[in-house]
Amino acid sequence: MPVGLFRVCLLVITAIVNHPLFFPKENGTVPENTEEIIQKMKEREESLRLEQLRLEQEIADQEATQKALEKAAVVVEESKEEKVRWDMWTALSMVIFLLIELWRQDFQEGNWQDIGGEEDDMAVLGKAFKGVALPDKAVLASFYEKRILGTTGDMARMREMVEGFADDLLEALRSVCNRDADMEVEDCMGVGSMYENWRVRKPFVCDLIVPFAPPEPYCFRCQTWCSGDSFPPDEQGYGTIKVCRADEDAPGCICDKTKLGEDMLCLLHSQVSSTRPSSEMEDLLCFKNTQYLDADQVMKWFQIAVTKAWNRISHKYEFDLSFSLLDSPGALKIKFKSGKSIAFNLTPVVQYENSDVYFISHFPRSSLAADIPSSTHWFLTFAVYERRFIQLVSKRLPANACHVSCLQILSFLHGKQCSLTGPSGLTNYHLKTVLLHLLQARPSQDWAPEKLEARLQDMLKFLEKCLQEKKLYHFFIGNGKVPAELGFPIIFQRAEPLNLFRPFVLRRDIYRKMVDTFHEMLRNMSALINEYTVHIPLAHTNGIRKE
Hints:
By secondary structure, the protein is α+β, with helices and mostly antiparallel strands. Residues 25-31, 116-126, 269-278 and 535-547 have low confidence and may be disordered. Strands 1, 2, 3, 4, 5, 6, 7, 8, 9 and 10 form a ten-stranded mixed beta sheet that branches. A hairpin with a 6-residue loop joins strand 8 (341-351) and strand 9. The protein contains 15 helices and ten strands. Among the domains are: 118-149 and 397-534, Poly(a)-polymerase, middle domain (Orthogonal Bundle); 152-247 and 282-381, Beta Polymerase, domain 2, CATH 3.30.460. Helix 10 packs across helix 12 and helix 10 (403-421) crosses helix 15.
């Protein structure tokens, strides 16, 4: 046991003595695996560096993602705020639109055509009246008595003669037409200045309209621009006329709206009546391959029918009858053997439903329908209601009221100015429309005969304002104040007002000519009146200026 313990102690002492850390050798060598360890350490260092770069890249990516998310959140927030602002603007716009619509309706019903009835409006209507001196009451009264009344005395006799001959001619026309195939012609009616007693310029021309209807079993179905369907702005005031069978489109029948089976048949409308050959529709004066009445076809038919009628009754009269205008279907002229002649217009029209509004094929001597969209578009005339309105208002005015005198004087001056400077877009119908607006706006006592000068000034002021604004609204269309006694169709009262000056907005040359002619008429007014008035001092006379 002691020997074993001794051996163990000796072994431990020998190991301690020989350990290199205690007794390093001076010329010792580096172990052989040192370079391998260093290489591994470098690889480890490189691996750690790459790992650090990867971690830095991940951190950078996370930061970029975080920034993108924050930016997207900001954009979403801004879009929400923008949407809120847009919704507010939309709501505000809708409110403004509703207010404008309410104002427009009030404007149409209460003051749809601004009259400017104050006496001091003269100072704010432009430069046309500056330096213009209107003739006084004495000069106007003398001019009207000697120039206007002196030339209109034979109007009644001429109307009576023309109406009697027209009735005889239409009766002969009915006799030469085939009642089973041709249009049915009704009695004629007088309209326009000759029948409203304000025409002043010669030659006197009577305007007669002749309603006609299709033969049985056909009927006319009229459609206007204000009937609900959309019409372009340039077709306002027009309508179309469809030729249909009387039993076509019967109320409650759905055969045209629903596909019936091959083994089903509509008892109201047979298959034979649903399709008609184009030749049949052309015989009914329709446009080719359509059911719409063609104004050109009507013009040709009417001229042929009038010619046949005249050939039948010509032996009864000691004068000749001829067409005076090729582009107007009923512009007729009576020529006596003495050389004198009488002109009148016999124009075919179609009645709108059961009213006295008519679709007219052509306007003789007028530019109102100069640019008709097509021959299937018919212009609506309210001439019968205009005549009735003047007659109705005249009953409420003082004796010898000056309303007709104002229109006659203004029409005469405008005609004389056009003879000097050439025709313009301004027509007698525009002047008549101005008078209709003023008749509705001013009280009855304002039209006393001694107020002729003031009312003439009102017409000139109103017309100048309309020219400046390029707005002169049709008197009946859109006018909610039409007297109920007239029985005027409500559909036209509720329609949008029709601006008679709209065609001049895009045709600046015609508009400029119209304004220049009006201003020249104002400057020449005193001279024109004095020229046709006797016993007027020379001090009142000025030279007439031409363009």
